[in-house]
Amino acid sequence: MVPLLLQLAVLGAALLAAALILISFVAFITAAGMPHLHRHEQEKFFLNARGQKEALPSICDSPTKQLSVVVPSYNEEKRLPVMMDEALSYLEKRQKQDPMFTYEVIVVDDGSKDQTSEVAFKYCQKYGSDKVRVITLVKNRGKGGAIRMGIFSSRGEKILMADADGATKFPDVEKLEKGLNGLQPWPDQMAIACGSRAHLEKESIAQRSYFRTLLMYGFHFLVWFLCVKGIRDTQCGFKLLTREAASRTFSSLHIERWAFDVELLYIAQFFKIPIAEIAVNWTEIEVWEQLTIN
Question: Long-range pairs for 203-212 at CB < 8 Å and ≥24 separation?
Fold first, then answer.
């Protein structure tokens, strides 16, 4: 009986803390001005395949690729190759089938302590720096901050956020593209398609403890009640945005770490950007040791 009461007490405290955090950030983002993005001098350049420094482009430039893939990475030297192999195999095959299709993959090393940048750079050497670029951040910013740095240096008409662990099958980008097209006409060329694991909820609940399930439902309720309406899975790392939607939302983003997705979608709904939630294939990936919450 005591353990159950203790669990309920911890649950209540966790939900209260989550509520206060969400209320605080909603109040903050609606009251504060546009956030300032500081970019260290080293973060304004990337190394081409020959190891020479080149200036990064800007989100304000006209797009020159159809698709940009932004991969935030923190201590991902072990998992990144699997994801990159799958993604580049798909992208290269698609380009052979359609020579008009152009892409780039931007790996953003979020201040890793391992060899993440070196591992990613091997793909730059293999495929060329027009297709694969590595941005190495001076210090850890958090997942949201890393994605923003990649988006602001991208060249794509559409920009895909994809996690380095490869939990989502990369070919499912076609599902997001279809969902994005289904939102047309896009107001001011802005639209977002969110990958979703909501259809896997029953299976995941069966594998979780009762306590973790309560926390999950509590978090989902708070997100729905305070912030984002109509999106069942705000946290899936597989999201496709038009260039205009990416620029508008990430220019207004304050949160760079945990729950940045919630603020991102809150901003999108605030600006009345249409959002589609699309079911994707997702696999639980073993988590390697990471010392910073992204």
Answer: 211/7, 211/10, 211/11
Q: How far apart are CA 133 and CA 148, in angstroms?
A: 15
Q: Please tell me the distance from the alpha carbon of residue 198 to that of residue 220, in angstroms, as a whole number.
A: 11
pLDDT-derived band of residue 38, with 50, 70 and 90 as boundaries? Answer: confident
User: Residue 166: is its pLDDT beyond 80?
Assistant: yes
Place of tokens 């047309």: 184
Angstrom distance (rounded) from CA 55 to CA 284: 37
Contact residues for 77 (Cβ-Cβ < 8 A; gap 6+): 112, 114, 115, 116, 118, 119
Three-state secondary structure call for residue 26: helix
Q: Is 259 left (phi over 0), alpha (psi -120 to 50) or beta?
A: left
The pLDDT, as a whole number, for residue 233 is 79
CA–CA–CA angle 26, 189, 144 (5° rounding): 40
- State mean pLDDT over 109-123: 97
Q: What's residue 291's pLDDT?
A: 40
Question: Which residue from 89, 250, 70 is spatially nearest to 150, judged by alpha carbons?
Answer: 70
* Tens of pLDDT, residues 207-242: 445 555 555 555 555 555 456 667 877 778 899 999
Inter-axis angle of helices 143-151 and 260-270, nearest 10: 50
Q: Of the candidates 239, 251, 189, 262, which has an alpha carbon nearest to the alpha carbon of residue 59?
A: 251
**Model's pTM, two decimal places?**
0.82
Yes or no: say if 179 and 278 are a contact pair by the CB < 8 Å rule.
yes
